[in-house]
Every structure is written in structure tokens, then in C-alpha cells.
Amino acid sequence: MQTREDIFNTLRDALVELFELDPERVSLDSNLYQDLEIDSIDAVDLIDHIKRQTGKKIAAEEFKSVRTVSDVVEAVYRLVQPAA
Hints:
By secondary structure, the protein is an all-alpha fold. The protein has helices at 4-19, 40-54, 60-64, 69-80. The model has no long low-confidence stretch (mean pLDDT 90).
């Protein structure tokens, strides 16, 4: 089972690798679009990367509400948690 901290660390590494971001720029409060300058095509790449890492796909509808790195962590956390 992954913790939110594990997910954040993996996500930060992915953002750094995929979009050549400085790791210090990526925090839970970072806005994907304003602070990290991720556009819609980058978001699709990020969704694809998450799918490869988790084996599960985040619905595009769910990703539309995502604004911050923390939002992505929460979405992935819900995705990887076993159904109660």
C-alpha cells in the first residue's frame, strides 16, 4: 500500500523527469498550470505515466478538477487504495 508521501515522491520524480522541472519547484501546493507551467498535453502525458506506474487509469473527468500537486496525490491515492 502506498502512502500519500510515497505518491508525492514518485509524482515529484515524474514531474522532474517528464517536464525537466527543478525538484524545488514541486511542492504539494504547486499549481500544475500556473506554477509548473504544465499544459493540457503535458497533463495527458502525466496521466499516462501514472497509468504505467499504478496499472490503473485516472479518468479524464477526475483529472479535470485537479489543480495542484496535492490534488494529483489525492486522486492517485484514491485510485490505489483497495475498495472497502
